[in-house]
């Protein structure tokens, strides 16, 4: 059994930086509800589960006024978080078809009629894809076949949307932000590879071929220079390699997994030995990436543990991304990796 001293925060009643009033996933109540429920289960302390439920009740009080539809701060992330909790068995006696009915309708209309200019998880098409995939895999008693069909339809439409955005576009691998967006897209798109199969495979195989070429060139280079204005560039390249491995795992491509593992190991060695690559000013982004890598490459778990101590020195805010929630989940994953199950999506969201 994990003790409260193995994770952070050690008690829901200890003084913490105030939780932001936003209801969203990354910096609001939904994300911290996930943290509290996970701690409550894995240290067998019902007070954490109670505080998680209190946070969700606050979300319920304001969700009707939320206009943001994004995964990072809006309805897609809130809905994804609630569905994730239910599917993990953490939120009992909850019918998400009922609870998320209005969210389904709003995001369905956005999928049909909205215009998206980005594939990003946080604010673009991949965020909606993540929501509808999570809803499509729900297992509510008496679930309507029609509801499943329109979740399926939304996934198919969003895959087409990604294909349209990618058509004729070059891969701007010189931009660190693009590396993160591409990684998130590959991880989530590969999870729905049996829907809209031809289009999905075309997108994935093209993205994987470009990613493999980029990472191989990066790893074969004798020395890598600093990237002006982007101290996280190589960290995001490591994140892309981890998402490449997840894409291989989701689709059963052992070669993708093997290549990605080699690239991760090489980049980690470079990050340790070449200071020019290691100039990140965001310790929490490093923690999220190292925690993700530790899930897919367990031999690297010590990196996440070291990074937790660095983050604790910053007086973190009480939120999931960039705060105490990320530290808590990372510590829990390090203390008992056999308990983590499929937590990769949480660390991906925090990058």
From TrEMBL:
It comes from Chitinophaga eiseniae. Residues 1-23 are annotated as: Disordered. This is Lanthionine synthetase C-like protein.
């Amino acid at each position: 059994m994990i003790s409260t001293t193995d994770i952070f925060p050690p008690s829901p009643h200890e003084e913490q930086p105030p939780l932001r009033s936003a209801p969203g996933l990354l910096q609001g109540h939904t994300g911290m509800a996930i943290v509290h429920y996970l701690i409550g289960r894995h240290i067998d302390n019902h007070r954490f589960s109670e505080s998680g439920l209190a946070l969700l009740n606050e979300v319920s009080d304001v969700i009707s006024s939320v206009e943001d539809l994004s995964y990072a701060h809006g309805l897609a992330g809130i809905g994804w978080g609630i569905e994730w909790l239910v599917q993990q068995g953490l939120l009992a006696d909850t019918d998400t078809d009922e609870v998320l009915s209005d969210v389904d309708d709003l995001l369905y209309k956005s999928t049909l009629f909205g215009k998206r200019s980005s594939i990003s998880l946080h604010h673009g098409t991949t965020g909606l894809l993540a929501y509808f995939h999570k809803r499509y895999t729900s297992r509510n008693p008496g679930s309507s076949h029609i509801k499943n069909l329109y979740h399926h339809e939304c996934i198919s439409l969003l895959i087409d949307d990604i294909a349209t955005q990618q058509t004729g576009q070059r891969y701007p691998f010189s931009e660190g932000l693009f590396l993160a967006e591409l990684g998130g897209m590959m991880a989530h798109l590969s999870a729905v590879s049996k829907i809209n199969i031809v289009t999905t495979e075309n997108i994935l195989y093209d993205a994987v071929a470009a990613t493999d070429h980029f990472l191989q060139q990066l790893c074969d280079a004798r020395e890598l220079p600093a990237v002006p204005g982007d101290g996280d560039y190589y960290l995001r390249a490591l994140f892309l390699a981890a998402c490449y491995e997840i894409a291989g795992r989701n689709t059963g491509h052992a070669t993708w997994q093997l290549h990605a593992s080699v690239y991760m190991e090489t980049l980690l060695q470079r990050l340790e030995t070449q200071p020019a690559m290691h100039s990140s000013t965001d310790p929490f982004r490093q923690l999220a990436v190292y925690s993700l890598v530790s899930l897919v490459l367990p031999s690297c778990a010590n990196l996440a543990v070291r990074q937790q101590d660095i983050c604790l020195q910053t007086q973190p805010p009480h939120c999931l991304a960039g705060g105490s929630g990320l530290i808590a989940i990372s510590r829990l994953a390090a203390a008992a990796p056999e308990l983590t199950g499929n937590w990769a999506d949480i660390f991906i969201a925090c990058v």
